[in-house]
Design brief:
The protein has 450 residues and is α/β, with parallel strands linked by helices. Helices cover 40% and strands 15% of the residues. Strands 4-14-13-12-9-5-8 form a seven-stranded mixed sheet, with helices on both faces. Strands 1-2-3-17 form a four-stranded mixed sheet. It binds pyridoxal-5'-phosphate.
């Protein structure tokens, strides 16, 4: 069929549909028993997402046999790509020993030691099954430790799916209130009003605004929760002075400072806290930390973590969980970190820098205004002329056009996150970064003036 009569913006979808009939058939069938055909809200995109069959290194294969170069790393949850032989070996050894036990295991102790050595602020840790549970327990610990109920989080910050933190993640410009004094807006229906009213929202990278909000709420706050790189809002790094301000204010007001490093951990050997040289009281980890398995970690100051210790009577804070510290996640995660040496990370980060440069050049060359944000191996595309330093700045970006570019990239064999975000894995080399650049230029050439 000739594509000449089809408007440019519809053409990508036309090609996408031609390439992916098996994914469409899958969704038609899957919708019968799964609302929308899947169990993960954030990975849906129209007309229907690609369905995966398998992964190999930096490649993904869909149900139609199309190959995609993976620049998502499962939304930053994989840092060594698919099927790394050493990770597979560690999993196989553990599989033979057992997958689930009614108590502690040596792989758990080993991984805890490895994490605490790597991230100096982690004096002690506990393992959960997800980043969501890590932030839930960190917040609960902060409340128990301070005896206060209210928490503060950043506008645009994502910390998982518990009620307390599903607030002001993607508020619309009309509901969000004043820029320096944002309103708390539930991110989904089903969150009780009382929960939302217990959350203070602070602006990101706005030192004076955030300080004023914190000081006015001050002594009532149990915790301030912040991502050192705002992930879901589009890989927006914090400014060092902003994190330093949060550290100073929280220390002065007796508030627990929690860094959610579920995404940002990968920016430096000891996480973003090493990169920015700002030390939190508690840290939450997730995603890549499980080496491909569902895993979360929270930890930090031993006087706070001591509240979980049951060895001297009933602990102040309970933390049960049938699969906490799951042995497969322990060995896959520990092997992942052992492979992620300072040298490997430096190379990965420099590849990330090269990719962001390629992207900036491609947009500039096509004359399409765009901001490429990110740090280390993280990147995001914002189709706006305005510099992006906070969630508010992303509200001017063109989401429809970004979606067309996303579909265009898929049509060229490149996968990023549908919201224009991505992260590199160590399985991607220089050649793949060049291929990304070439594919992006091809797609933008199709969209110039559209
Ligand atoms: C910064 C951040 N915190 C917490 C979470 C929640 O982690 P999980 O999806 O493992 O529950 C995510 C997930 O995307 C995240 O990006």
């Amino acid at each position: 069929m000739s594509t000449e009569a089809i408007p440019l913006t519809a053409r990508e979808e036309e090609v996408y549909r031609e390439r992916t009939p098996a994914s469409l058939r899958f969704f038609e069938k899957a919708r019968e028993h799964l609302p929308g055909g899947d169990s993960r809200s954030t990975v849906f995109y129209p007309p229907y997402p690609v369905v995966f069959d398998r992964g190999e290194g930096c490649l993904l294969f869909d149900l139609d046999g199309n190959q995609l170069l993976d620049f998502t790393g499962n939304h930053s949850a994989l840092i060594h790509g698919y099927g790394h032989p050493e990770i597979l070996k560690a999993i196989q050894v553990q599989l033979r020993k057992g997958t689930s036990f009614p108590g502690a295991t040596e792989p758990q102790r080993h991984y805890a030691e490895l994490l605490c050595r790597r991230i100096p602020s982690l004096e002690q840790v506990r393992f959960t099954n997800s980043g969501t549970e890590a932030t839930l327990n960190a917040v609960r610990a902060a409340r128990a430790f301070t005896g206060r109920a209210r928490i503060a989080k950043v506008e645009g910050g994502y910390h998982g799916t518990t009620d307390d933190v599903m607030v002001s993640i993607h508020p619309s410009g009309t509901e969000a209130g004043a820029r320096s004094e944002p309103r708390a807006i539930p991110n989904t229906r089903g969150i009780p009003r009382e929960v939302v009213s217990n959350v203070t929202i602070i602006p990101y990278n706005d030192i004076e605004g955030a300080r004023a909000v914190l000081e006015s709420t001050g002594a009532g706050l149990a915790a301030v929760l912040v991502e050192p790189v705002l992930g879901s809002a589009g890989m927006i790094p914090a400014e060092t002075a902003y994190l330093e301000m949060l550290r100073e204010v929280t220390r002065r007001l007796g508030i627990v400072l929690i860094f959610d490093e579920v995404v940002s951990f990968r920016v430096a050997y000891g996480g973003a806290q090493e990169y920015f040289n700002v030390v939190p009281d508690l840290t939450c980890l997730g995603k890549l930390i499980g080496g491909g398995f569902p895993l979360g970690v929270f930890g930090g100051r031993s006087d706070i973590m001591a509240m979980f210790d049951p060895s001297r009577g009933r602990p102040a804070v309970l933390h049960p969980g049938s699969h906490n510290a799951h042995p497969l996640g322990m060995v896959a995660g520990a092997t992942t970190l052992e492979l992620l040496t300072r040298e490997v990370l430096a190379q990965l980060n420099s590849r990330g820098g090269a990719l962001r440069q390629e992207m900036s050049r491609a947009f500039a060359g096509a004359g399409i205004p765009a901001q490429i944000t990110g740090v280390g191996s993280l990147f995001a595309i914002h189709l706006t002329e305005q510099p992006v330093r906070s969630y508010r700045d992303t509200l001017t970006a063109q989401a429809d056009r970004r979606h067309q570019i996303f579909l265009g990239l898929v049509n060229e064999g490149i996968l990023i996150d549908p919201r224009g975000v991505g992260s590199l894995t160590t399985a991607l080399g220089e050649e793949e970064v060049r291929r990304f650049g070439a594919a992006l230029r091809t797609v933008l050439a199709r969209h110039r003036g559209a």
